């Protein structure tokens, strides 16, 4: 079939669903939706629609990026508003079906807002202010058209770029990517066209394209959502890249921990082959290209391109010195183009709309959009796609809705274990590759974690170093030993055994690790420590000199204390909840925590009824009144 | 009988078209999916199949976090300590779980009912901190909620091994 035919067929199918005479129900079933119960909601809709014999179609869609509102359901009704409902439970389904699918009641109390756009434009919910600040390129189809139907993608201009690319000279294609200024979204921001060009010029009759979907940052999930919501965009990008560099074979290296993304990608690959968009003589040209999935086995370093290729060859995932770069000497020694999921997903848009269009979005040095995963102490967690150059403040407050429960904002960690922590004063930093690097953080993977006053910065730095230390592959010494030493010093500090000399040593070792490590894992591992030292030194000093953890997180520096004036002596919640039998009653029946037994699990604080709120945390521990620290020799009264 | 089914599943995995080094990890993943872990015997079979020393197979397998070398519990318990979960108190949840099951991280209860692992981000950051018991995701956990979750599970399976309360 010609592309024109494929397109027309897809459009007619798509229009009959989305613009036809029947109601169309979209249920978001990406991983976040499923965790919140989307599969039960989907099942409930199927049952209800079938039971009533109602004329309505149901589609599974991906994620709109509004994770804290999941499960999300959108009901598209001919000649009426399309309405998006949030936090849907199976119990709400009969009402929604009776109300809006069949009747005229839009059930506004359950609604998040109306949905406009969708199809050729990204779907947005105009009632939500965050959409004013967003620009959805990568997320254009997410949560609206179905990732399980290639026709949905085709109908929304899908594979048009591939058809167009096949009529162009590879050199012209690379030139277009160069003019767009696209920089790799895998973290480093390397100009995409430069890689493409050197892979294109490399002399070899075998070349490979690898899509890096390892996404190892333990707080980032953009690539996963993209693959679960719009896998064809990535496949199309890979095929275009393959044509440009002269590769016939592509691989997607994806974490095994992403089973849903893997299965949706598999489905998409089969559909693309069926339609002749992958395989031999694609769209009747002489271009052959197929894609194979390779599953990673859970090692952060495998995201580094040379380590990834070692894993793909069935070896220990050890990085290699570069150069030579993979673009000339990669998988099995052949020229290999390695690009991130997002980088590849931009390609169809650039080919379709032109370099000028792409350059018009974002900043001069970092054109396009940035896709972030927002998590941590934010009101609205999920995905956000904004033009490059948007400030962190906009991301945290206008899109993220600020800190949850209006707690005091403390910092934002960007780029995961390789990134850095930035304070309130730097919230006006624009997000783009260069300004973030200047501030000590990195664009990195795109994970943004917001911290509030209840988070300890030393503990956070320790968490990331602990991660890097465990994930260090062990090949080079600075990273293997250095991260261990840094962890050791940080551990001392959080235990109240730190020294000021230790702080200096921390900085010194960090410098050595950065200078001496073989790959980016080591080179960037000290960043969380260096930035917290730079912006939160007082907090380190409080731990060392006052034995005080200002956020009252570090266990050895924090004590649980029950305020006698607030304790309701008749209530035994804390006594029953304490797994260490550390809580006892004094002679007046007031509860006391025996500090010598307390394991600081926090159960008493959690179970103390809100109307009393008697359990507090104190730091340093010397703040606990001396007569209320341990159980007296002869207990005055058994609880 | 058990041996029979074992060699059967292995021959399904060690298919001739996979007799290449690049399929090693894939093969190990399939074995773990079938058996729950990588047994010494299975790894030796793989080394014969791919014609490489057993030490090489072992060396690759031990490099990756995914592989385990002891049988897991019937209901693997995974506590997330990704960034979001850590900041929301995941460490306390992990400690509470270890206490509740009376095993250490990486351990399995004596009756093989539960095993305990810490994992990094399972993609439910909005629901942090989370833990999974078997296939079930438990969102927004706290130490008391952990205790309650296991009380409920044990109550749902009376008489089953692993229902004795911990001393
Ligand atoms: C420790 C480490 C982990 C990495 N993890 C990833 C990852 O998960 N995904 C990714 O695309 N790139 C990752 N990278 C970057 C890759 O090495 C590579 O630069 C990137 O995939 C290139 O794609 P791009 O040019 O499209 O950015 C990592 C690098 C390092 C040093
Ligand atoms: S950090 Fe726990 S689910 Fe993401």
Structure description:
By secondary structure, chain A is an alpha/beta fold. In chain A, strand 12 and strand 13 (420-423) form a beta hairpin. In chain A, helix 8 (170-180) packs antiparallel against helix 9 (192-201) and helix 19 packs antiparallel against helix 20 (500-516). The radius of gyration of chain A is 27 Å and the shape is globular. Chain B is of the alpha+beta class. Chain B has seven helices and four strands. Chain B has a four-stranded mixed β-sheet, with helices on one face. In chain B, a hairpin with a 2-residue loop joins strand 3 and strand 4. Chains A and B meet through helix 2, strand 10, strand 14, helix 18 and helix 25 of A and helix 2, helix 4, helix 5, helix 6 and helix 7 of B. The complex binds flavin mononucleotide and FE2/S2 (inorganic) cluster. Residues 184-188, 190, 212, 214-216, 300-301, 303-305, 338-340, 343, 519-521 of chain A line the site of flavin mononucleotide (FMN). Flavin mononucleotide is lined by residues 184-188, 190, 212, 214-216, 300-301, 303-305, 338-340, 343, 519-521 of chain A.
Write a brief structural summary.
The complex is a heterodimer of chains A (639) and B (167). Chain A is an alpha/beta fold. The model of chain A has no long low-confidence stretch (mean pLDDT 95).
